Amino acid sequence: MSEKYLISIVGPTAIGKTSLSITLAQHFNAEIISADSRQFFKEMQIGTAAPNSSELKAAKHHFIHHKSVEDDYSVGAFEKDAIQTLTKLFLNRDVVIMVGGSGLYVDAVTCGLDEFPKVDKNIRISLNAQLIANGIETLQSQLKHLDEETYNKIALNNPQRIIRALEICIGTGKPYSSFLKKSKIKRNFKVLTVGLTADREIIYERINKRVDIMIEQGLLEEVKTLKPKAHLNALNTVGYKELFNYLEKEWTLDFAVSEIKKNSRRFAKRQLTWFKRREETLWFNYDTKHETIISEIESTIKA
């Protein structure tokens, strides 16, 4: 193989991306880069469905539990680190696997980050004050009014993402989405994106089952240890924020778990919306045999 390939595995949460990534890594003698923005944090293991010890031993992984929730680790920093890692790996390998459901982080590696104009820093200060005074719902409504396209794609439970989009909308008078890249930057490797999907009912059933398993594995105990750090952005994450509400005695445990399932299903819907934008993606049903996927990948690479 004369060219270098990054095989990027995408799809909604709980669809089977980790299992496929390990199979592909073993077949292609490749290493795996994680593009899951919450699996970066070592304190968040159960609630992020990070690869377990046996999965980590089955294939070499990068960007799993290499940061603390107290670290400020941006998508820009990840892009830089990931490209540096890929450059080193491609010295001795023709294929590297990337896996993750964080669309912005996947795009940062495959397409590069978008460039935005500078805006008055006082806009962000004002929006943060609005968040504290009125809650995230007011910011969500404002974003829907100013840029419905971004509203339908963004992680609506992430105040930093919403504020970033709003400050561009307000500061430029144009939608945040209008500044998004129309074309990819040139990388020194080719990208082959493989997507896993299923009927909505099956995706939701798998998500509900995964949440039940997380609870059985001790998610509540993990969240208890992180309660003193609940204010950190990394912990404003599905599976953690709901259980913080339970620990604050605002919700019952059963209701908190039902909210985790509901918010995970909403997140999966947004993931599919994001990943379906890429027309060149090779989509497979979640239960497709890995051998079939490998055969299709090899045919595409050789074409």
UniProtKB/TrEMBL annotation:
- Keywords for this protein: ATP-binding, Magnesium, Nucleotide-binding, Transferase, tRNA processing
- Which biological processes are named by the entry's GO terms? tRNA modification
Q: Where does substrate bind?
A: 13-18
Q: Which InterPro entries match?
A: Dimethylallyltransferase (IPR039657), IPT (IPR018022), P-loop_NTPase (IPR027417)
In this chain, the stretch annotated as Interaction with substrate tRNA covers 36-39, 160-164
The highest taxon in the source lineage is Bacteria
Q: Known Gene3D superfamilies for this protein?
A: 1.10.20.140, P-loop containing nucleotide triphosphate hydrolases (3.40.50.300)
Question: Pfam families attached here?
Answer: IPPT
What is its EC class? transferase
Look up the EC number in the record and give it: 2.5.1.75
Molecular function (GO) terms for this protein are: ATP binding; tRNA dimethylallyltransferase activity
Q: Where is this site: Interaction with substrate tRNA?
A: 102, 124
PANTHER family assigned to the protein according to its UniProt record, in alphabetical order: TRNA DIMETHYLALLYLTRANSFERASE
Q: Return the similarity comment.
A: Belongs to the IPP transferase family.
Q: What does this protein do?
A: Catalyzes the transfer of a dimethylallyl group onto the adenine at position 37 in tRNAs that read codons beginning with uridine, leading to the formation of N6-(dimethylallyl)adenosine (i(6)A).
* Description of how the protein assembles with itself and partners: Monomer.
Q: What is this protein called?
A: tRNA dimethylallyltransferase
Please report the organism this UniProt entry assigns to the protein: Bizionia echini
Per UniProt, what is the name of the gene that codes for the protein in this document? miaA
